[in-house]
Give the backbone structure.
Amino acid sequence: MKKIFTILTVVALTTTVSFAQFSAKAGLNMANIVSNNDDADNGMKLGMIIGGNYAMELSDAMSLDVSVAFKQSGTKESDEETSGGVTYKASQTVALNYLDISPSLSFNVSDAMSLSVGPYLAFAMSGNVKSEWSAKGNGVDESESDSEAIDFGDGDDDDGIKAMDFGLNIGASYSINDAMSVSAGYALGLTNLIYIDDDMKDAYDAMDEDLPSIKNSGIFLTFGYTFGGGY
């Protein structure tokens, strides 16, 4: 996959620019984190996507698109229970902010519709974990919250969360007119964001347990505006 990413990027930089278009895009990322922990109850976290796209026509039916965008990913977990007339609520939100670079090949299936597929490479810009807790009812009214920044790295004096993510985008676009379009797709993270060293591998092997794994995923919806109209 990384070789494909490199090849597509090189082609993007060397293709004749006379058939190129630039467009701005903004939209919604319905993000989640997939875990191999059966006890995890991760839910969707809404985030923003904003950036630009550079498209180059390779043939009448195919084009190469290179997108660079700020993307908000992560997940949200919440729990609620009532006991003795008191309702307890707890939630934890993991926010991961990335610079996302996504080259892809687009295939025209009609004058207005196209399908696309390609890898993405995302670099962590920032992240935090926010926890909230409350207890209300039967004379009780308490709450507290806490927020802690994520220190990306390899587990040596940091949180052991990788700063780079790699995955695959699959999507479709519909052209409203020569300037405006809407796109939707799915981003499948292929990188285990947890840094695992040899000591951790040995410990899990000794317990005969699977190594912990968390991976990004997301359904995205964006609106694009192309400068200069169609090819």
